[in-house]
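Consider the following assembly input.
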Amino acid sequence: MTDVRGGVELGPDAEARLGGYLADVRAAVAGLPGVSPDEIEADVREHVGHELRDAPRPVPAAALEAVLARLGPPAGWAAGERPDRLRRVGLAVQQWARGARASVGARLRAAREAVWNGPDDWRLAYLTFGVFAVGVLTVIAFPVCLVVSYLLGRAGAAAAREKGVELGAARKWLLYPPAVVVSGVLLVAVVGLPLAAGGWAWDRVDTAVHRVALFDGPDPPPADPRDRQAVREWQERQASRQALRQRKAPQLEDDRRLLAVVPVDPRWAPAAAGAFVGVGAGALWWGLFGVAGGLFPGAVRGVFFPLAGRFRARYGWVLAVLCAGALAAWGAAAYELAGR
Amino acid sequence: MDADLLGNWTTQLRKGLLELCVLATLRGERMYGYDLAKRLSGVAGLVTGEGTIYPILSRFKKDGLVETELAESPDGPARKYYRLTPRGRALLGKMLAAWAEVRDGVDRVAGEGQP
């Protein structure tokens, strides 16, 4: 049994009849200038689903037949229309090819019909999962298989959408894995980007803390002045520190100024600096992301498909406003720290 | 022979008028494709089958005369609604004016032949 748009279950006979009718629809409108067979098929599915919403389940062929009779024979829909020149050539070639194929055996024709008339959205779903599974199993081919299966999955979802077919759980399991992997990685990368700025600040302050501790920290002389070796090592260390201090003087001055800005114990300074810079970078980055999402919600849904399927422009604007508030508070705090 | 001529003439006549009626029906409000098909199929002699309007809608959409939007439905999946674009609205005005001119002219000519 199958579903037309609207979740109407068709009996086997009705399903076959509808498939044949839709094939007639596609054949009738193929080549007409300016029309989309996919869109017309989706409209017809929606129309049939609406008409049969109160019919018994599964819908018998007789009930469907009445609906199709009211829709009329598809061959009549194109009456008075004339295919454009390019299409006329295409149709002539198709007609010739059809005649040539007629000479091939019935079994071959049946096989070809089965392949060509099969629903694209299902074939793409199986292909998507197959290619993705090959990548997982072979490991080495995973990157290539991931890209290919991702594109196939997006094509499968688009084909279903154009037909007006709502993806059921089974098809989602086949189509979504590569899309979830790709979108998940992208989402983590986008969301986690400000963490890199926080990490950089952590590392910079941590280096400064260690350098300042090394040169400014106490290094008392040996407790026993008669221990000549210890005294000599201390003197060498002092000479080395002095030389290094002179050489690194500008750097040390920068480090001291940096640490003076961080108003916490030096032990906690790297973490505090990393968190502070991370929050600022996050507010700025996610604010920009929010504005982009507010302006182009469709792009967000497309890039992070299917994870962001419910994303709406207002979510982006809410995020942007929240981040703008956080950024303002962060800026005030930064201004105050810079003045210390 | 006459039947063929009449059939061809009727087909051509219906085609143009149905396009005009599709645009005119969408003039006031957006409309679900199904409702549009039902409404126009109720006009005697205008359509031979309810499905006839779907290729027209598809072509109008491609030509930028109508646009579609999906809207949630309480009865099931989201529905596709059609609405006129500014370009479609402008064309409809011109088509209605042309139709009125032709209709009046035809009425006049047909009236002259009457005894």
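The longest strand of chain B covers residues 76-84. Ask yourself how this observation constrains the way the partners meet.
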